[in-house]
Amino acid sequence: MIPRFDGSRDMRRAIDRLARRLPEPLEDLASISYNYLWSWTPGGSELFSRIDAHRFSLSGSNPVRFLWNLPERDLLRAATDKDLLERLRKVSRRMDNDMRRPTQRTQASGPVAFFCAEFGVHPSMPVYSGGLGVLAGDLLKEASDQAHDVVGVGLLYRRGYFHQRMDTTGWQHEYWIEADTDQLPAVRVRGADGAPLKVTVPVWDGELVAQVWRVNVGRTPLFLLDAELAENNPLERWVSARLYEGSREIRLAQYALLGIGGVRALDAMGITPGLFHLNEGHPALASLEIASQMSSQLTGNRRDLGDLLEVGRDRFVFTTHTPVSAGNETYDPGEFFSVLGRAVDEMGLSREEVASLSRVDAMSTSEPLGLSRLAIRCSRTTNAVSRRHEEVAREMWRPLFSEVEVADVPITHVTNGVHLPTWMAPNMRALLSEFFGPDWERHAHDPGLWNHVDEIPDVDLWRVRCELRLDLVELVRRQIAVDRLGRGEDIAYAEAAFAAFDPTHLTVGFARRLATYKRLDLLFHDVDRLRRIIDNEQGTQFVVAGKAHPLDEEAKNVARNMFAMKRGLDTPNRLVFLEDYDLRVAPQLVAGCDVWLNLPRPPLEASGTSGMKAALNGGLNLSVLDGWWCEGYNGQNGWAIDGSVLDDPAAQDERDAGAFYDLMENEVKPLFFTRDSNGIPTGWLTRLRASLRSLGPHFCATRMSSDYDERIYGQSH
Question: pLDDT band at 130, cuts 50/70/90?
Fold first, then answer.
């Protein structure tokens, strides 16, 4: 049953307003624009580009903004475009049919409320930073595809995550752009009185007031809380200003808004989750809010927090995504309760009990407090995001379960997967559909489907791979010209970008957060060997992209060192850095690279998903055996670097860099450039098919969603 005040009516009103601006033949564009289902429905993106590709790009691929700002003459012209109208009918019909499917209940007893600090649904909704958010967005999309009863809960960051600009030395600078919420594909949720629905959360010494926005992600609603209200002072408004704000106090307030405010917002909308899925520790305070609600319903003797949480544990599951300490932030008690003390007090809970639950040693009085610890203690299950990460997480969190051996620590895993319709390029998707049959994506976790890749002729498979590489080359040429001009580089150097990259060369991608454990610097460990790989007739070209956290000086220095090393190669157009890596660039980058490179310092890669996206498009992985690649690599579907850990990090870097260069020189390049009489690398395609067959069914979000439903949501005490 759809809650009465969940924003559905407000969404219909927003659609009607936009429809009134459009000529009658284009009115269906209004409902399409307010549902991100268009972004992964075949033909959806092309609809808006057909009207005006340049303006659509300038709008940030935001169809609501695009249509509100398009001149009337262009709308009238589009309304007479017969080809466009036929495309519109097809997309509208596909989306309507999708939305009319009956809801499939998960094994939870009611809707699953998926709480996360960030959601990477689409570049036009800038409330994400990287892998955690993109994974959350993929999970919501897959829930829609499977018609599962799921709602997302997060925050609407008015300034989102930072944008990146590099100067001529390679030093990263950050800047933020404020979103115009009036032109986002989102609506304020309104209550029975027609006024915006609001909730309050105690933070510091006051009451933070938040409104709620609804975003349609296919069939899945995403609710985002926003503190930009007149009732709040400037400090309180800043709580929802920027994702992963540098101030520790602001971040604590964000976590209160997400966890406590998120539960209260669902209550206010009439949504009663059967299960709360906490994605990382940020929303852990939701468990305290549920405990408080249970306490207020009790009569007679009040039970202690431990008892309340024990009863409430059956409604919570927790996913941990990182073995890196920065991802499991801790706070000293004074810092913690200066922001959250009033919330704990007003919920009728004991500060001492909350503190003990947030420490590794519950009996300590000096140990710092962490939300990941609270989430583990307050959830019926905890899962890591790959098989190897499960092993690392068990060792890492064993002190919470001091009476058990590492092997018995109650942490399991659900390996991440990626949303196939989002990340598989349209031409690859169309090619596979010819051989896999209609509607195959909803059954993509069936290994039998993927055996059909052997039926695809070499010429067709190679043609699509060359098309994807060419698309990437054109993107690189456009963007690095603009990047160089923006840095104030010499005009001749900027113009040289127009000849950058070669659509016939082996293309290697390295794009991810520029955290030091990702070891971008291994690429330049031996510059002479790298030069030999790059600079010869059968050439190799590297595209690098990624952002360092604004406070991570060490990671920023890695990027600056890369710029210095790059100049020494004398091949500026064979190794390029794309600035401001985000969801605008990522799909073409993962699709266009022949090899996807990953060099993490093991065992610090919890899972990783970019390599999965590359694999869906026929790219081959060359990766350290860490994270998901431990499960994915079978000896025939890519290349692997030893993932064992040495006591001496420098020796390990030397070993792993040497392995990377050896593989590139002796296996990867020869296989790519060995061609038959038709110019086709048949050996390469053999490995490519092995990659698709083995990785496609196991690392798609369809399999991940099924695992969560059967192995996590279905469990109960």
Answer: confident
pLDDT at 236 over 80: yes
Same structural domain, 337 and 407: yes
**Cα(559)–Cα(459) distance, rounded to whole angstroms?**
39
Per DSSP (E only), the strands in 323-427 are 330-331, 369-370, 381-384, 411-413
Amino acid making up residue 531: R
Dihedral Cα 457, 460, 464, 470, nearest 10 deg:
120
Among residues 325, 339, 330, 320, the alpha carbon closest in space to that of 256 is found at 339
CA angle 101, 107, 110 (to 5 degrees): 75
Which CATH number do you get for residue 576? 3.40.50.2000
pLDDT at 311: 78
Instruction: Please indicate, yes or no, whether residues 116 and 87 belong to a single structural domain of this protein.
Output: no
Q: State both tokens at 277.
A: 């899925």
Average pLDDT on 621-626 reads 97
Domain count, the chain: 3
Using the 3D structure, point to which of 67, 100, 133 is the last residue of a domain.
100
- pTM to 2 decimal places: 0.94
Q: Give the residue from 589, 641, 637, 595 showing the smallest Cα distance to 619.
A: 595
Quick one: angle between helices 248-256 and 333-346, nearest 10? 20
Does residue 495 sit within a domain? yes
Give the C-alpha separation, 526 to 517, whole Å.
18
Which burial class, exposed, middle or buried, applies to 362 when counting CB atoms under 10 A from its CB (0-12, 13-18, 19+)? middle
Query: What digits encode the pLDDT tens for the residues 555-612?
Result: 999 888 888 887 777 676 888 899 999 999 999 999 999 999 999 999 999 999 999 9
Whether residue 91 is contained in a domain is answered as: yes
Tell whether 458 is covered by a domain.
no
What integer pLDDT is reported at residue 420 of this predicted model?
97
pLDDT in tens, 63-78: 999 999 999 999 999 9
**Residues 300 and 405 grouped into a single domain:** yes
Q: Is residue 428 part of a domain?
A: no
User: Which residue segment(s) compose the domain that 334 sits in?
Assistant: 112-162+173-416+707-713
Last residue of a domain, one of 78, 100, 122: 100
445: its two tokens: 């976790």
Q: Which of 623, 628, 626, 635 is nearest to 691 (CA)?
A: 635
Cβ atoms 441, 145 nearer than 8 A: yes
Helix and strand counts by DSSP (H, E) for the chain = 30, 20
Q: Are residues 198 and 60 in the same domain?
A: no
Nearest partner of 104 among 145, 152, 137, 140, judged by Cα: 145
Beta pairing partners, 496 = none
Q: Is the peptide bond before 185 cis (omega within 30 degrees of 0)?
A: no
The verdict on 89 and 121 lying in the same domain is no
Q: Which residue has better confidence, 673 or 536?
A: 673
pLDDT in the model for residue 570: 66
**Dist CA 350 CA 365 (whole Å):** 14
Residues 6+ apart with CB under 8 A from 580: 163, 164, 165, 547
Same-domain pairing of 289 and 346: yes
Q: Are residues 533 and 559 in the same domain?
A: yes
Q: Is 102 left (phi over 0), alpha (psi -120 to 50) or beta?
A: beta
Average pLDDT value for residue range 143-169:
94
142 closest CA partner among 697, 703, 609: 703
Token pair for residue 57?
Answer: 């790009």
Looking at the structure, do residues 616 and 573 belong to the same domain, yes or no? Answer: yes
